[in-house]
Amino acid sequence: AQSVTQPDIHITVSEGASLELRCNYSYGATPYLFWYVQSPGQGLQLLLKYFSGDTLVQGIKGFEAEFKRSQSSFNLRKPSVHWSDAAEYFCAGFSGGYNKLIFGAGTRLAVHP
Amino acid sequence: EPEVTQTPSHQVTQMGQEVILRCVPISNHLYFYWYRQILGQKVEFLVSFYNNEISEKSEIFDDQFSVERPDGSNFTLKIRSTKLEDSAMYFCASSQEGIVTDTQYFGPGTRLTVL
Q: N or C: which terminal CB in chain B sees fewer CB atoms within 10 Å?
């Protein structure tokens, strides 16, 4: 079955430090992968998406993600975290002709000043 | 920037009551979705809707659930007789096209509490 896994429930980093949020997927065919962010009281905002081609994709707010087929991973990175990045981050994907998103459990990011 | 809106932000209801959750998708979008997130669990797909028909639904979306686009702007989710386990955050989303490469834009959610 298709699935998306986020192994880390909570992560805390210091402001200015680098960030990597992990995401693993399980799909038979080429996956279509997304990262969304949810700030308190807000909807899910798309950060970036991967469909094909370059394995490193750039998103909004300085985020990037790297697709690694050999590791079935699509980790989200940011070189220097800002306090405003504190939020919950969701990895999601779907495969084939389906247009329903399958979400990971989310990773809640806290940023220390 | 256009956005998806949802009302109410929080709904409290008694078990067995009917609730209607409302969404206004982005105006030129053609595909609409409902997802839900039970506290502490994953965001789960409920249903997708296009051209006034359900295009796909999950196992969760049983006969107690229905969706409707009553006019040109609103998209609603009705739960006929709520159960305690329906307590969750419900997200509406819309996309311009229904293809996998198209972005789904999400609303802020409605928190449903069933007592």
A: N
